[in-house]
Hints:
Blueprint: H1 3-49, E1 54-65, E2 69-80, E3 90-100, H2 105-108, E4 118-124, H3 131-136, E5 143-149, E6 155-161, E7 164-169, E8 172-176, E9 179-185, E10 191-205, E11 213-228, E12 234-249, E13 254-270, E14 273-287, E15 290-305, H4 306-319, H5 335-350, E16 354-364, E17 368-377, H6 387-394, E18 395-405, H7 406-419, H8 425-446, E19 450-452, E20 455-463, E21 466-469, E22 472-475, H9 476-486
Antiparallel strand pairs: 1-2, 2-3, 3-4, 4-5, 5-6, 6-9, 7-8, 8-10, 9-10, 10-11, 11-12, 12-13, 13-14, 14-15, 15-16, 16-17, 17-18, 18-20, 19-20, 20-21, 21-22
Helix pairs in contact: 4-5, 7-8
Amino acid sequence: MNKPLGVLVGIVVIAGVLNTAGAWYTGTKIEGELKTSIEEANKEMAAQLAGSATHGSIELVSIETHLYSSTAHYRLTLQDDAEGSDPQPVELLFVDHIEHGPLPWSRIKTFKWAPVMAVSNYALEKTPFTEKWFAATKDQAPLIGQVTLGYGRSVDGQLELLPFDLTLDDKTRISFSGLNLSAQTDEGAQHLKAKGYMDYLKLLAAPADTAPVSIELSGLTLASDLNKSTYGFYLGQNVLELSEAQLTSGAAQSVLKVKNFEYTGSASAKDRLMSGRLTYSLGDVTFNDKPVGSAEMVMSASNLDIPAMQSLLQIYQNKFQPQADGTLPKVQLTPAEDTQVQADVSTLLAAKPNLALEKLNIKTTNGESQLSISSSLAQPASFELPPLDVVKQMLTSLDAKLQLSKPMIADLASVQAQLAGQTDPKQIAQVANMTSELAGVMAVQTGLANVEGSNILASLNYAAGVVNFNGEKMSLEDFVTLMGTRFGGVAPQ
């Protein structure tokens, strides 16, 4: 044997010995690592589902450990306690084939030679509950995934939902392209990055007593880049993009189509104060292939006291969960809870939060409307003061502007008439013009706005106890009296 070949063989032998030793060591730790991961997952699930009627848990049913691999079985249980829901919990079973590190074969053959603790290859198992799903994917596991666990407890995971065509009954059909998700976290999941993509989802329902309804979603992209805050929840950016959504409904099978929907949410914190911003946009809306318009909305908030918000949210979750019909239960706060709410509200206001609807733009073929509202709040000296005095101290500023386009109102009224079943072009145009003109007349008659050309205009500014309403200045008391007079209310005390 020549020397280079001997060195190479030696390296291979040594690597094999080290890998065997590493695999044995990993095998002795796998069960403990799994239990720790499941405990963390259950805590995170409980936090995410807090305040809802749904709760769930993951449990390790069994594990068989060998030198180079282990096989584990898990049970995911989901229960909905909402009134009127099915009392039987949903159970999903998973099998997990775990390759021990430091050099699992699945990584070696893809030239990923950095040592890792383990590679998990999991899949949904067939049960009576999931057998239809398996049938739709030709008896392949419809949900599969892989998770690589690093020695520093970093995680790199991929999840795949397989495509299928499923006929639930003679009236309902689902067609799904499949979905791919990937996520990476560092030790302790302090930093989380995730992305996902779905090509399409189509749902067709044909109830016996109504016209068929179909929904089609195309080109769904998800992305997140988050960091865990010191308060236990994630801050950062989330993005959702949808290339196209289509709804077909009604006796005439009218088609409402939305293109280029985008949602962006971002949040950050400095010390105990949080700021956030939400953006929604619709790039193009059509009805029966005729253009309707586009829209954009931007909302923001800053100086939000995190501990106070968490405390208020906890009380809300414990006391005011919506019932099955959507209404809030009639509950009474305990004296301690009432005191806590008042303290939390005071703390929130002491941080001087700012809330804003920065932009609401709706643009149609013939017009464009805009609305913006911004406000700043502060803590009043006492909530026992007369209501108007509390408002004066609590609302430090308010600025609102509205530009409402009459042609835009006519465009939307025309679409509404068609959705209601109108087909006569002359009648649709008449309804649209009447609606837009009526909006202008009502705005002027109520004194809430002015009409300039084709626009309905309104503005409201408040600061230091003075209100500027559509260019007319007055005290807050006079403004409240004016509104009460116009809408049949009661003058302030």
